Structure formats: C-alpha cells, structure tokens
C-alpha cells in the first residue's frame, strides 16, 4: 500500500506532504509516515529544516475517529508528535484550510507555525465529549497562555488565522497562493537558531499568577457547559499545565482523556456525530439522484413561522417571494424580519451590508400569481386541513410544473394535503421548528408518492440553509411531536395524581433539558388553540385561559413571571389543579423524582420503538437527531434511543410495566433478546 505521506527535497529543506483525502485525518498510515519522514530528516545531514504541509483542501483536520474504540496500532499520535518536537532542526507547520483537533496538535508540536489568512485552527474534541489527547492541553497554554487557551480547549470552536496570530499560536501569515514557497523561505530563515518548543514555553504562568482565572472562566461558561463532563475536564487539564511539570501535565491529560473516552457521555456524543451524518442518507434514494435546482423560493404566510422560514433562504442568498393576505400582515412580517436581522448585526454576527443584502432578496406580495416561477413553495398557514388543502389547490393552479410544494405542518397528514394537487409526487413536508431562523432541526416528511428527486433536493437544501434534517414517514405528529405527546400525557397525569407541576419541570431540567413541559407551555402560549370562551372550562389549560393566564406573553401562565421572566410557582394555578383533581376523584400522593422521570421518558422510548417498527423513521439514530436538535434532549445522553440503549432496554420495559404503561412488542422483543436500537 502506498503511504499517504511523501517527501520532497528543496535544497536544504525537506517538505513532508500528506495526501489522505478527504480531510487528511491522522490515521495510522499518516502517523507512521510522519514519524518516518522526521526520522529521515534528522538522519540526513544535508537537511537543515523541515516543512509539513498537506495536499487537498485542508491541513490535518483531526484524528481518524473511525479508529475510536478499536485496538490502537502504533505509532500513537503523542509518540509521533514527541519525535517531531524533539528534532533539533526547525520543523514548520504550513497550514491551509483547517488545523483541527489532532491537526492543531501537530502544529503545536512543530517549532513554528505559518498559515494562509483563510485558515482556521481549533481543538474541537469537547464536541465529542473528549479533550485533546496528544498534549494539546499542555503545549497550547505554554505557548499562548492559559487565558487564551481556555476558550479554544473548552469551547471547541476554531479561530481564524488572524486571531491565532494575535494570541501567539501562529508565527506568521503567508501568501494565500504561495503556501509552500513562503513556508520554505520561513523555515530557511530559522536554520542554525535554537528551536523553540511549545512544551518548554512559559506563557502559562498567567494562570499561576492569577489562579482565580479558571473559576472565573468556569462561571462565565456555566450555562453552556451545564451537565457536560468534557468542558470541566478541559479546564482541569489547562490548569494542570501551570501547576505541573510538562511530563506530569501530559500524564494528567492522558488520565482525564481516558476517563472521558471510557465514559457514557463521549460514547453518546460520538454516536450523535455519526447519527447526524447518517440522517442525511436515505436508504432507497440513490446517491446519484439528479437534484432539482432551487433558485427561488416562495413562502406563504409572513407570521412568526413564515418569516423565520424565509430568513433561512435569504441568509443563504436564495431569493424569496413571501405571500400574505393583507398589506398590514405583509408589512408587519417584513418589518419583523428586518428587525431580527438588525438585532443580529448589533451582536456583531453580520454586517449592515449583509442585512441589506438579505432583505434585498425578499419580494413581498399579495398575489398567488407571483409564486408562479418559484422552484419551491413552502406554506406556513394555520394548522387546519381544509385551509392547507385550499392553499395547495391554488398552488397547483399557478406554480410551474416541476416545482416542489411543501407544507410546514407539524402534525397533519401530508398525503391528504397532496390530494389537493395533481402532482402528489412533488409534495413533501418541511417541518421547521420555532424560531425557524434559529432552530437547527428540519423534519422532512416523506409522503407515499414523494419522488426521489424531491426528497434528495430537500435534504441537500437543508444543508445549504444550515439545518440538520431527518426524514419521517406520514403519521400524526411525525417523529418529534408524536413522541412529545406521550411525554405530555404523562406530565398531565402526574400533576393530577399529586406531583407539583414545577417538580415535573425540575426533573427534566435536572436530566438536561432546557425546560420542562409546563415551562414550554408558558413559552409557546397557553392560549394557542383556545376556543376563547371563558365560560367553557373542561381542561386545566382552559381554566388558566379563563383566568387570563396565557403564559410568558402576559406574565402569568402555569408560573408567575417577573420583568426578567424569572418564574415562580403560582398558588392560583396550584388551586386550579387541586380543584380539577378533586372533581375527578383523583387520589393525591407523593411522587418520587425517579417515578416522574421514568413516566415522562420511558413512554417516549416506547413510542420511538413503534415509530421504528412502523417504518416511520429509517433508523433509531434519526430519532435521536430529531430530539437533540428540535426539542433540547441533552446531547451528552445521545438522544432518547441511544439513552435507552445505555440504561438497558430491559430497564425501560420493567419501568413501563411497573407504572402500568403500555409496552410495544417491538421494544419487548429487543429487550428480551438483549438487542439495542442502535446496533
């Protein structure tokens, strides 16, 4: 087998080149080739300096994660990098594209680092529930200081080359089109000088002089890292770089790394990494399916959902025609979109020019005829079947043949909607989540007649607009809301049996959700779907609406809210619930946190099993993708189906039976045979 590493001699400089597409991952062959090349350079008196660069679109973009969980084959990355750093001849990393994870650690082990201005560098291991494992947490702080290292190691987001140069991670920015030549010239300028080794740096003394630095940083990240093990381990590792000699610091990093690697959180996050990529693959749709060009999009409805949907396409540079029934509604919707963009600009996430560019692609209209030339039209109108079918019948009349007609329905039957058209093959569900311009998930609902090219186009388009897509079959509520309904049923039952509604919410908060079911109700608005008759009270929600408790929008729902939207339980609501329970003769009892958690989450797993059994989801991991991206299921558990695998399907079945809840045959069979959802 040909090595992915080759060398080229440029007089007294040896250029070491990696060619391991697509991203020059640091697999065993790459590591061995790098080590051999360094040994070649050290053993050749004619070689005075070394440059390491990569072919293709990027520098080393990280470890080969397909090796995770497999028996290690040497040389290890730490061994390779130590050999590189030990060289007395200057070794220069010439960086383009991205230097991520192990790639950034390669750069840190080099004596010098140069990069083109468009390059990015980062240590994203925390996103897989890990920390750098090849001395990255020890070399980086010694090179740039603990204060500059912490955001890189703990946050996991890459930084542009200019910033990397500013903090001391890069030595020089070089020509975008002259990477190799400039790197060779730089390396040659360092010949004969003592080589600087990151492991011997002292920039990390800032953390020694100011030990409170680490606690302040942890406090500033508290909300973002809540529940995650890896960020706290990363802080500990960077702190160790100032407290311990280098060799002991490396040992500490290794101990922390191995603990994370063998833990459930990293397994869950690595599962999700692959799950997100798998979700975009549709089993029966060939990879070479021709795509429908989407050059113009129509959106029907300029309300909260419609406006948010439109913004996704505008931000991606795709023109949008947005339709409303009245001029007031149209103006209001366009105004909200502009305000949203301007708020983003105020936060520094886009420029004023980009705001105008996005809004310049928007065409408001009151006429269906203006949608005629759209390649894709998405309706975001009232969730009523008759209304939806009326809209689709009109679209069928005016929109050009070959265009995709999509519904943003969150619950309704997409196949029935398609019957309003003469082109059911071009009808698909595109269920965006609110706020649609922010939430990552797109549930793509495949009708029984949806064409392969329509499906493939929508999945590809989801990536273009920055969404994570998962395919669902047609069933009430699709994947996400179907499972959510089971959780809500139990939440309602629990408060009738004696659990306080804030206790129900708190159990889910402790599990890792951003909010519980009753908080969610307050945020969405309790009056959604309310019949507006205060004398007609048959449910707790109707009773709250009759008391004008509509949720956060007016400062009182299940909870009372202050001006900062801080919540406190309401005595009035507690009395309303107690009254309903008494009228229904429901016996009140103490309910443990364990019971609350099991009754909220186990029925969701059971419903997920039914969804799989019915073929409404292609794979269990797609369900995990839906719940992590659309409903705030904690990433570090891997999603509901992976979590169920982790705790054991027999545990789930036993819990459901203990609480007198139904168990699907599909779930029972898997539990009894010792199988998992994610094999």
Describe the model.
This protein is of the alpha/beta class. 47% of the residues are buried. The strands form four sheets. It has an eight-stranded mixed sheet, with helices on both faces. Helix 13 (264-279) crosses helix 26. It has 29 helices and 19 strands. It has three domains: 5-262, Alpha-Beta Complex (2-enoyl-CoA Hydratase, Chain A, domain 1), CATH 3.90.226; 297-476, Rossmann fold (3-Layer(aba) Sandwich); 523-583, N-(1-d-carboxylethyl)-l-norvaline Dehydrogenase, domain 2.
Set down the secondary structure blueprint.
Layout: E1 5-10, E2 13-18, H1 28-43, E3 49-54, H2 77-86, E4 91-95, E5 98-100, H3 102-109, E6 112-115, E7 120-122, H4 136-144, H5 146-155, E8 159-160, H6 161-167, E9 172-173, H7 179-189, H8 205-209, H9 213-220, H10 222-225, H11 230-243, H12 246-261, H13 264-279, E10 297-300, H14 304-315, E11 320-323, H15 327-346, H16 352-360, E12 362-365, E13 376-379, H17 385-398, E14 404-407, H18 414-418, E15 427-432, E16 441-445, H19 452-464, E17 468-472, H20 480-497, H21 501-511, H22 517-524, H23 540-546, E18 559-561, E19 567-569, H24 571-583, H25 593-613, H26 620-630, H27 640-647, H28 649-658, H29 665-672
Parallel strand pairs: 2-3, 3-4, 4-6, 5-7, 6-9, 10-11, 10-13, 11-12, 13-14, 14-15, 16-17
Antiparallel strand pairs: 1-2, 7-8, 15-16, 18-19
Helix pairs in contact: 1-2, 2-3, 3-4, 4-5, 4-11, 5-11, 11-12, 13-26, 14-15, 15-16, 20-25, 25-28, 27-28, 28-29
